[in-house]
Specification:
Length: 137
């Protein structure tokens, strides 16, 4: 992991109270790539006592943010979609793996797989970002 990638994502985490509340841990960073994980807590469930879809979306969205910004080019989500494939419960450990599909001058496209501790795919997420051309750090 390069120093720049670490600096950018460290800066982002220091200013991202929501990702810290989620309990996100950064596992790996490469240019245009991130891998993060978190554990599902009871306060993350909905009325059916399964994980709220917004929590899973947020994990994938954070993986997108770390992958698309780690070149130090401030990038913002432009469009995102998710498919939920498997129920997620309290205690499950989720990993989001964000891979760059397209790195353009003004946009980027990323595919994020969310898997559980049993290596089962629980969600597919695709995100498009807009590159502002401004530095983060």
């Amino acid at each position: 992991m390069s120093d720049l990638h670490e600096q950018v994502v460290s800066h982002m985490m220091n200013h991202d109270a929501f990702s810290r509340w989620l309990g996100i841990e950064v596992l790996e960073l490469k240019e245009g790539y991130s891998k993060i994980k978190m554990t599902i807590r009871e306060e993350m469930t909905n009325g059916f006592y399964v994980t709220h879809g917004g929590i899973i979306f947020s994990l994938a969205d954070s993986a997108l943010a770390f992958a698309c910004n780690n070149r130090n080019n401030l990038s913002l989500a432009l469009e995102c979609n998710i498919s939920f494939l498997k129920q997620v419960n309290v205690g499950d450990e989720l990993t989001a793996d964000a891979k760059e599909i397209h790195n353009g001058r003004s946009t980027g496209v990323y595919s994020i797989n969310v898997i559980n501790q049993n290596n089962q795919l629980v969600a597919l997420f695709k995100g498009t970002c807009f590159r502002t051309g401004k530095n983060l750090v």
